[in-house]
Design goal:
Blueprint lengths: L48 H8 L3 H29 L4 E5 L3 E6 L3 E2 L10 E8 L3 E9 L2 H7 L4 H8 L5 E2 L2 E2 L3 E2 L6 E8 L9 E11 L2 E10 L3 H14 L1 E2 L1
């Protein structure tokens, strides 16, 4: 008689298989079991067929659900880690190239639309953002008087001449300084800006001004104000990479 559990062949009339499991449980065929006392050494001697089925059943749905949660959490935190790493690791950055300019910034920034503030003298050329950081590029074309004053100046002379202009954000006057080894000036300040980055509306700005013959490009790079200590050096490197075509 073949055991339904292990497949071993047993002699006719045997009640228990050599593996210890019962050969005849339930139904009419189980007529001789009352006169048979299995070996007390068998771990299955007192086990019924219902008991065996219960021990073999596996709660598949809860296990699949738990695995899905673990995988989902792993993907979520893995993506967050990669996103944070991209902000500061130069080997993950990519160059964004537009007709008039290019800049090297973290990969994953998405191009969006922002309207130039009505009455502004700047024309918006590009706006890119993510949950953690972003940048935008605008250009200001000199008026004739401005061209006479600023046209053709390098960053150092531009900074000196620009001191005559007062720029205030949130009632704080912005002080621009020359970026050492680069041809632009920059200033830093906090600002409340909705929809600039996904993480927070409290944004830390580093604003770069890049002079050329007919005007200057204004490049803002920014992150959440709480992250400025971690991201500031990287943001200045983004500005360093900016090129006018």
């Amino acid at each position: 008689m073949k055991c339904m559990y292990c497949g071993r062949e047993n002699p006719d009339g045997a009640v228990y298989c050599e593996c210890g499991r019962p050969l005849k449980l339930g139904g009419a065929a189980n007529t001789n079991t009352s006169s048979y006392t299995p070996s007390p050494d068998s771990p299955f001697a007192s086990q019924t067929l219902a008991d065996v089925k219960r021990t073999r059943s596996v709660p598949v749905v809860p296990i699949v659900f738990i695995l899905a949660l673990l995988i989902g959490a792993g993907v979520f935190f893995g993506m967050r880690w990669l996103e944070q790493r991209n902000v500061t690791k130069e080997d993950t950055w990519e160059t964004v190239s537009e007709p008039l300019w290019e800049i090297t910034v973290p990969s994953g920034l998405k191009k969006g639309d922002m309207l130039t503030v009505q009455g502004s003298s700047y024309d918006l050329l590009g706006f890119y953002s993510s949950r953690l950081a972003g940048f935008d590029v605008s250009v200001h074309t000199y008026t004739d008087p401005e061209k006479e004053m600023y046209g053709g100046l390098n960053a150092k002379d531009f900074a000196e001449a620009f001191k005559g202009r007062t720029v205030k954000i949130n009632d704080n006057e912005i002080k621009y300084i020359v970026r050492e080894g680069a041809n632009y000036i920059y200033g830093e300040y906090p600002r409340h800006c909705a929809n600039y980055i996904g993480k927070s509306d409290e944004v830390w700005y580093i604003e770069g001004l890049f002079p050329y013959a007919d005007g200057f490009f204004l490049v803002d790079v920014y992150c959440a104000e709480e992250d400025k200590g971690e991201y500031r050096d990287a943001m200045l490197k983004w500005l360093d990479s900016f090129k006018i075509k």
